[in-house]
Every structure is written in structure tokens, then in C-alpha cells.
Amino acid sequence: MSSGIPLQYFLILATIMFFAGVYGFLTRRNLITILMSVELILNSVNINFLAFNRYLFPHKLEGMFFSIFVIAVAASEAAVAIAIIINIYRRFTTINVEDVNEMKY
User: Fold this and answer.
1) Within a domain: residue 20?
2) 68 lies in a domain?
């Protein structure tokens, strides 16, 4: 493509977002922050889907369909995860990962 933003810029942005999400997932202790890090990772994958679709197959919509599917899965995952986090908070009155060491009924 002769006009527009180069593909490398999208890849650099997605890489930074991905590794920021991985760093947040591995270092944070709060369950909400961990969930936000997973969402950041999924959004970086969406950027890659759309960027490669735009530059490799500009007249097709496969990247868009994959991104919509990932967004739908991420929305359902977030709803289930938030329900689990609310139940953990009710049981243990904390959402720190280190404080929740027993998972029994």
C-alpha cells in the first residue's frame, strides 16, 4: 500500500500492548488488574488480526470476523470472571491472589 500507516507501526503497538499485558498478568496481585491485563493481551491480538487483514487482503473481511469473535469471547470471559471475583470477595473479603489460598466450599 502506498498510503496510510505502515504495518510496522501496528505491529510495534500490538507488541507493546501484549507485553504490557503479560507483565501486568505476571506481576499484579489484584484479580481485577489481572483480568484487565488479559483483556489488554486480547486487544493486542485484535490489532494484529486487523492490521494483517488490511495489508495482506484489503478487500476481504476475515480479520474483522476473527476480531469480532475474539471480542465476543472476551466479553463472555469477563462476565464469568467478574462473577467469580465477586464470589471470592464475598467469601474471603479480599481480591488479592496471595490472600486467597484456600478454595473450598
Assistant:
1) yes
2) yes
- Residue 31 sits in a domain whose CATH number is 1.10.287.3510
Q: DSSP letter string over the chain?
A: --SS--HHHHHHHHHHHHHHHHHHHHH--BHHHHHHHHHHHHHHHHHHHHHHHHHH-TT--HHHHHHHHHHHHHHHHHHHHHHHHHHHHHHHS--BTTT------
Are 75 and 7 in contact by the 8 Å Cβ rule? The answer is: no
Q: What is the pLDDT of residues 4-40, one digit of tens each?
A: 899 999 999 999 999 999 999 999 989 999 999 999 9
**Share of residues in the chain with pLDDT > 90 (%):** 76
Range of the domain at 56: 7-92
Contact indicator for 24, 62 with CB cutoff of 8 Å = no
